[in-house]
Design brief:
Structural class: mainly alpha
Number of helices: 4
Strand content: under 5%
Radius of gyration: 22 Å
Number of strands: 0
Order of helices and strands: HHHH
Shape: flat
Length: about 90
């Protein structure tokens, strides 16, 4: 949880606006945190999840058409909103 919280947190050890160093802490700390978290997971759990993942791959990727449709709808609404705003700005 701490790695995910740090990854999404707007607060960093080194602020992102500092060139190169700002992103360097994210590039180093997040992979190290993920590696540490993976080492803490028991082998039995990793093997069980690996088997489940392989079964899902064999059966084909799960599809969620409802969520896919909602994402496409959101993009259409955004494009229409920008188009209408641009039209009103340039032609009014």
């Amino acid at each position: 949880m701490c790695v995910v919280a740090y990854a999404f947190s707007p607060i960093d050890l080194i602020p992102d606006f500092i060139p190169i160093l700002g992103y360097l802490d994210d590039v180093i700390l997040i992979p190290l945190g993920v590696a540490l978290a993976l080492k803490m997971i028991p082998n039995a759990v990793v093997q069980e999840c690996t088997v489940k993942a392989e079964d899902r791959i064999k059966n084909g990727k799960p599809k969620n058409w409802l969520v896919g449709s909602l994402i496409i709808l959101v993009w259409i609404v955004i494009i229409l909103w920008i188009s209408i705003a641009a039209y009103r700005h340039w032609f009014n």
